[in-house]
Design goal:
The chain has helices at 2-30, 41-51, 53-58, 77-94, 150-160, 187-204; strands at residues 36-39, 62-67, 73-76, 104-112, 115-122, 164-168, 176-183. It is an alpha+beta fold.
Length: 205
């Protein structure tokens, strides 16, 4: 009995420490909301996975990371994190009914030309092809207890980052992939930098 209680206490302590780390990480991101900064995209993906790590482990989901070599880019780190956490959560919920050992979450990053990309793929219930066109619509959901706000917010947030979000599925029970694309050179940041340089020149003159 003592050994059992001690084991449960140790596990509880570890969980509390993990929760504290998550809260601390979220607070650090919140302080920089709306601020564009030079960030390594792979690090943001890792943070998103850490935030949902307990739930992923609890549901026995295997995580595969396929990270490409990506140079740091200017982004609103907080907004990108929110999108990824939402996509990971949706993927986890889509695999709730997966048989033991079949739940797989794949996080893939890549860079092509002027675009960096994050793909969130699951082996879950999939999306009927006739519903894909509406998947980001406000209030639209395929979940019994869903409200249809999450993916709608993610799509809007992606556009605010001068990027895009799209979904793909081969059909029911064939999983789904959500792809977030962001510009390597954000025009808003470039515009602000140009304006700042122009002001500096005027001050010098």
């Amino acid at each position: 009995e003592q050994a059992s209680v001690l084991s449960e206490l140790t596990s509880l302590t570890q969980n509390i420490d993990h929760i504290k780390q998550i809260i601390s990480r979220q607070q650090s991101y919140a302080t920089s909301a709306g601020i564009f900064e030079r960030v390594q995209l792979n690090d943001v993906v890792e943070d998103a996975l850490r935030i949902d790590a307990n739930a992923i482990q609890r549901h026995g989901i295997a995580v595969r990371k396929e990270f490409g070599e990506i140079e740091p880019i200017e982004m609103d780190r907080q907004k990108v994190l929110q999108i990824l956490v939402n996509l990971i959560k949706n993927a986890r919920q889509a695999m709730a009914a997966c048989a033991d050992g079949s739940a797989r979450l794949t996080m893939r990053t890549s860079m092509t030309g002027a675009v960096v990309r994050v793909e969130v793929s699951d082996a879950g219930v999939g999306i009927p092809t006739d519903l894909l066109a509406n998947i980001f619509s406000y209030g639209f959901t395929t979940k019994k207890d869903g409200h249809g706000f999450g993916l709608h917010y993610c799509a809007i947030a992606a556009r605010e980052l001068d990027g895009s979000l799209r979904a793909h599925s081969d059909g029911v029970n064939k999983g789904a992939t959500f792809t977030l694309e962001l510009p390597r050179n954000n025009q808003r940041v470039t515009g602000r930098q140009s304006a700042a340089s122009e002001c500096a020149v005027r001050e010098v003159v």
